[in-house]
Design brief:
The chain is of the alpha/beta class and 263 residues long. Helix 2 crosses helix 3 and helix 4 crosses helix 6. The longest helix is centred in the middle third of the chain and has 34 residues. The radius of gyration is 29 Å and the shape is elongated.
């Protein structure tokens, strides 16, 4: 009689009986209408999410045959949430998980996926590519995914599904993606041989996620700033500087600073 949320809605007493504890009287009264007329009549100000949770608990179908709601917007929103969850789980199996697996087999522990439309043409100049980190960027061409992720509510549902599956550092949104060259001009300054290439960008959904288990142990040292900590002491070519074994980059910087103070 009861669904997956039994532990949430009920409490067991010492006699082996279950007491329905987490359903409000108003919600329970509306649910009882189903056993009388086969319909649940929902007033405008009643919480539709709680009605949906109660229907799942009592194994009552949540659809247009059983729910008669004065607040159509709230009713349609809950139907959309159900539909978007099923749809995104389908996208996971057909497009997203295979793309993640390709990145994982390259040794990556995170993935940045851009969802393009099927008619988007990506034509990058191999000599002057856009600076988008293409070596760590994955592209999925699917009109349904691109349309699905344009809604912020669908992105929120997708994020909850990814969290349930154990993924971390999840970000979903809309970003500009370069498809082809828009302008090419010759400049006096020559950072790239005097050629400046501007790309045409389209706004497309993206998904970023990580499956790294030990991210809290990963350490990053910005070696661009190491020079500010280097010693100015000159070392002769025949002089040996002894450093402890198993010295990491951060400890080495601290040792150099300590040696500077001694000098």
């Amino acid at each position: 009689m009861f669904g997956e949320n039994m532990e949430r809605f009920t409490k067991e007493n010492g006699d082996g009986e279950f007491k329905i504890d987490s359903v409000s009287p108003d919600i329970f009264r509306a649910i009882l209408g189903y056993y009388v007329s086969g319909e649940i009549r929902v007033p405008f100000d009643m919480n539709m999410y709680e009605i949906k949770e109660a229907c799942d608990f009592f194994l009552i179908p949540f659809n247009t045959n059983t729910i008669i709601s004065e607040n159509l917007s709230a009713f349609m929103n809950e139907l959309s949430n159900d539909g978007s969850r099923r749809k995104f789980e389908s996208f996971l199996q057909t497009d997203i998980v295979p793309t993640m697996a390709e990145a994982a087999m390259k040794g990556e522990r995170e993935c940045h996926i851009v969802c393009l439309k099927e008619d988007d043409i990506v034509d990058w100049d191999p000599e002057y590519p856009p600076a988008v980190g293409e070596d760590r960027l994955s592209v999925v061409k699917n009109n349904e995914i691109s349309r699905f992720l344009k809604y912020i509510e669908n992105r929120e549902v997708a994020k909850s599904v990814l969290l349930e599956k154990g993924l971390k550092k999840i970000r979903l949104g809309i970003e500009g993606f370069p498809t082809h060259k828009d302008k090419v001009k010759v400049t006096q300054v020559k950072p790239r041989g005097g050629i400046q290439v501007t790309y045409f960008y389209v706004q497309r959904p993206f998904i970023v996620m990580s499956w790294e288990k030990e991210e809290h142990r990963s350490r990053h040292v910005d070696f661009a700033n190491v020079s500010t900590c280097q010693s100015h002491r000159s070392v002769n070519s025949d002089e040996t500087v002894n450093l402890p074994q198993n010295l990491n980059a951060v400890d080495e910087i601290e040792l150099v600073e300590q040696r500077d103070q001694e000098i």
